[in-house]
Amino acid sequence: MIPVCSVVTKKTLTEFKLLKFSIEQYHDVKWYLSCDTVVEEYYKETDNITLLSLIETDDCDHNVQSQEKLANWMKVMMTKFDVCNRALQENTYCLFLDSDMVFVNPIEEEVLNLISSKKVQAAICPHMTNNAHIEAKHGYYNAGMFFVNSLDFIKSWENLSKDYKKYNLYFEQQPLEFIHRDFLTANLPINYNLGWWRFNLPQTQGRISMFNERDDILYFGNRPAINFHFHCLRELETDNYGQFLVDFVFKYLKESKNIKYKDLYDTYHALKME
Questions:
Q1: Which of 9, 82, 83, 140 has the most CB atoms less than 10 A away?
Q2: Structural domain tally of the chain?
């Protein structure tokens, strides 16, 4: 059983349903959700979900100019620390996932053993954009996926994030770049957290050719592709800059002979029709 935390609101519920379906094809999961009243009502009878109703509004976005929506975004994102704290009170570690993810392979045992045995205090994901300017602005690490087993790690991250404006940092994400230096951490390899931003620049577009198939399983290079990070079911206030990767992945799933992939595609299609 893997304890998994996420932040889910009315706007992100449909994408979370897809995340939940995809990872539960491979793992038994105990969920901890920071949520609003809509999500609380939807999952109140679900046995494997602990709900923390912490979110007052999801009228937020981090890609717009509205100061009110930016402030609301930060309030929502700060609840990730609350939900991780709750999970760590009941488990030796937890995995945090943004709601806009899709799993196409199981998390490797070597990764789970690394964090559950406490050989490291956290496992985090570099953005891997190969663009120093972008990462200087948004942070070297992506805060949408991480393993953690240390309450001190979460506390330090939360404390610096509270002062993000004072230090001119990018929301709660860029503080991770600084606090991880005081802890023993591991970088998850490139086959985890396959975000669209890793494939959209001139120097990284060629990475698409690294996807390949072995025994009906999707690989990225020599390692199985674990999970993708992109919006595929949420109505956005801006263009979906990751649509190219959404199209690529779901076309592959639709045409695959892998039963799990076909079921995942069918679930995606059904959720799209809701």
A1: 83
A2: 1
